[in-house]
What we know:
Blueprint: E1 5-6, E2 9-17, E3 25-34, E4 37-43, H1 44-48, E5 51-52, E6 55-66, E7 68-73, H2 89-104, H3 107-123, E8 126-133, H4 136-146, E9 149-156, H5 167-181, E10 187-193, H6 201-214, E11 218-222, H7 226-236, H8 240-246, E12 254-258, H9 264-272, E13 276-279, H10 281-286, H11 294-300, E14 303-306, H12 319-334, H13 342-349, H14 351-356, E15 374-378, H15 390-397, E16 403-408, E17 411-415, E18 418-419, H16 424-438
Helix pairs in contact: 3-4, 3-16, 5-6, 12-13, 12-15, 13-15
Amino acid sequence: MVTLSRADMIVKAxxxxxxxxxxxxxxxxxxxxxxxxxxxxxxxxxxxGTYSADTVIGGTGKVAFPGLVNTHTHAAMxxxxxxxxxxxxxxxxxxxIWPAEEKWLSPExxxxxxxxxxxxxxxAGITLYSDMxxxxxxxxxSAKKIGMRAVVGAxxxxxxxxxxxxxxxxxxxxxxxxxxxxxxxxxxxxxAPHAPYTCSPETMIRAKELSGKxxxxxxxxxxxxxxxxxxxxxxxxxxxxxxLDGIGVxxxxxxxAHCVWVDDEEISLLAERKVGVSHCxxxxxxxxxxxxxxxxxxxxxxxxxxxxxxAASNNDLNIxxxxxxxxxxxxxxxxxxxxxxxRQAMLMATRWGxxxxxxxxxxxxxxxxxxxxxxxxxxKKPHLVPLYDxxxxxxxxxxxxxxxxxxxDGRVVLDKGELTTADEADILQKARGWGRKxxxxxxx
Length: 444
Ligand SMILES: [Zn+2]
């Protein structure tokens, strides 16, 4: 008789998408999880012949895939969702968002808001996200409490803000935050100089040095609008990507959000330096910033991933819809219906996302030795039958409401669509409370 090895849990599904280099798809598959890690993944019969567990979840009518990765957001901005829509970027930012941030930002605000953002993201199958904001300890604390994996970039600006009056103070705060969180199992600290138009080349170099000192990601906005291109050219006589490359900032530790206005020379540089690009299609569309040349970037070998950006410019945190929107928009603008197909979109939303955030060996695919960051979705839905191609269904037809179970690091953080790590009603109640304070006339 064969002695079975013990696992903490076995996850079963009709379809298991490994998202490994061969894009292996397992029919009637299973994943054995032990100590937070995947110890075995393969056909259910094979896994059952090797591992046993008291807890078996999933089963018929389910699909399992790696947790989705949101490579660019400002999670706490969920509290500004819908506060100011349908406005030009400059008016939106300068007359609405910045004044609201100046008035309301605090560790309490950010901590409460990030709980809501993490709840929203987990319900949409996102298990890892990359944040750029202020009050990093509050962000990291809430992400950890809710049980999400997060890369938290400490925001840096050249001008005074709520958290610092000088550039030195921003960096002192950032280094303190990095030391508080480095080595944590779920939260990776990072450094986030906002953009080339809000951070001087000297500030960028300083941020790069800090990233190098601790071996942490550097997260920035890059070439988001046409205005930025002319502004940087006016100030420095260069295009933004060329400017940053000239001062040695660009390499594989960099996550560059947007890259809407990049030409062929800049695309080659991004590919050569192995910069990870976060494509934020819905935010770019809503703010009419333009459409990033994603097809050209992919062709040049740039690792393009998906970001939601903040909920004030999206207005949700949903990578399923980013995949669907991007796949459709890039077909339309390139005139090529084969562009950005469903498998490519899934790869960008999973393994490439994790790799871009420096966590490629930890998560992003369902492979033995990696963390059990797993999404289980229900296929018994009107919009998901019949089923010919599972990748197509996930990218073009699936909604967050189809997602019932989410594991992060082997822990069930979403069970039957409900959060297990905190009280959902309480998180919603706090959000409504802040909404009433921010705009008493408009909030119930
Ligand atoms: Zn952003």
